[in-house]
Amino acid sequence: MSGEEEENAAELKIGDEFLKAKCLMNCEVALILEHKYDQLQQMSDDPRNQVSQVFEKSLQYVKRFSRYKNPDAVKQVREILSRYQLTEFELCVLGNLCPETVEEAIAMVPSIQAKGRVHDDDAIDKMLNDLALIKKFE
Amino acid sequence: MFLKVQLPWNVVIPAESLDIKGLMLQKSIVVRLLDEFASRKATKDLGYLLALTTLESIGEGRVREHTGDVLFPVAFSGITFKLFRGEIAEGVVHKVLKHGVFLSCGPVENIYLSKLKMPDYDYVPGENPVFMNSKMSKIEKGSTVRFIVIGTKWLESEREFQALVGLHADYLGPVS
């Protein structure tokens, strides 16, 4: 980001390469890493020998911070959030933190209310309700 | 934030592990990549390297003079973790000091929340020191805290990131 505007995720200034990169929600990462871990377990007796510290710490983290555990629910969360013209980054912050109110959602992802975006309070409210429903029926 | 990235990489396969069949070559490339992932730990641009998901393509191998090792340009997708300035995330407190607390978030362990960045919390000394505010909200070892990233720093020698975080916005603080 050198020589460019200062990085600020709240205004979606995170560098083009990351803005376009696919972000992953904690619950998605949990599914992928658990699957990897199982694969390694089949290959050796003690999978802990096989994984790096970075892997292990991340797995612990995403297990603790996944709001949705069921793979179908995880898929649905992404599907529902994708309907709201969010960037990948915004989508994942919302999916990770699961704000309960419109005010909280805007505080977590200030960019969703930036000028020129289509999100009014009603749209955000509907989105949060949809998310809460998935959690309820998980 | 966890990211799914596509990366070009050069993998060097030692000459002695080459006299085997094609399938094994793919395996040695993956094994090699995993090794490098683990030893590299992180890069300044991409953040922490977590896992390799798919090997997209293996290019034409080039024999290196003298050693006979073969270098393969490969492309693969993997998962990385990076904290961005302004990002809001949740972490776990692992150390409480007089001047602030240290948190971990994903693979990052050096996340510092200074006392100055949580002005309504006061340090309460004791066997298990805590930070507490007037509403009896507590930050102690093991607490989950939602924070905003103020800045990050890449440490080349340790190959890791440090981050400074704060609680100076709405809806931040300990999460029960």
From TrEMBL, chain A:
Q: Which keywords, in A-to-Z order, does the entry hold?
A: DNA-directed RNA polymerase, Nucleus, Transcription
According to the entry, what is the taxonomic lineage of the organism?
Answer: Eukaryota, Viridiplantae, Streptophyta, Embryophyta, Tracheophyta
| Any Gene Ontology biological process | DNA-templated transcription initiation
As for subcellular location, the record says: Nucleus
Q: Which GO terms describe its cellular component?
A: DNA-directed RNA polymerase complex; nucleus
Q: What range does the record give for the signal peptide?
A: none
How is this protein named in the record?
A: DNA-directed RNA polymerase II subunit 4
Which intervals hold domain RNA polymerase Rpb4/RPC9 core?
Answer: 16-138
Show the InterPro entries listed in the entry: HRDC-like_sf, RNA_pol_Rpb4/RPC9_core, Rpb4-like, Rpb4/RPC9, Rpb4/RPC9_sf
Please list the GO terms describing molecular function: nucleotide binding
Family affiliation: Belongs to the eukaryotic RPB4 RNA polymerase subunit family.
The principal localisation class reads nucleus
TrEMBL record, chain B:
The Gene Ontology CC terms held by the record are: DNA-directed RNA polymerase complex; nucleus
What keywords appear on the UniProt entry?
A: DNA-directed RNA polymerase, Nucleus, Transcription
Q: Does this entry carry the keyword Signal? A: no
Please name the InterPro entries in this protein's record. NA-bd_OB-fold (IPR012340), RNA_pol_Rpb7-like_N_sf (IPR036898), Rpb7-like (IPR045113), Rpb7-like_N (IPR005576)
Q: Listed GO molecular functions?
A: single-stranded DNA binding; single-stranded RNA binding
The GO annotation for biological process reads: DNA-templated transcription initiation
**Start and end of every RNA polymerase Rpb7-like N-terminal domain?**
10-68
Please give the superkingdom of this protein's source. Eukaryota
Q: Where in the cell is it found?
A: Nucleus
- What start-end ranges are recorded for coiled-coil regions in this protein? none
Membrane among the record's keywords?
no
Q: What does this protein do?
A: DNA-dependent RNA polymerase which catalyzes the transcription of DNA into RNA using the four ribonucleoside triphosphates as substrates.
What is this protein's record name? DNA-directed RNA polymerase subunit
Question: Which gene specifies this protein's sequence?
Answer: LOC110763595
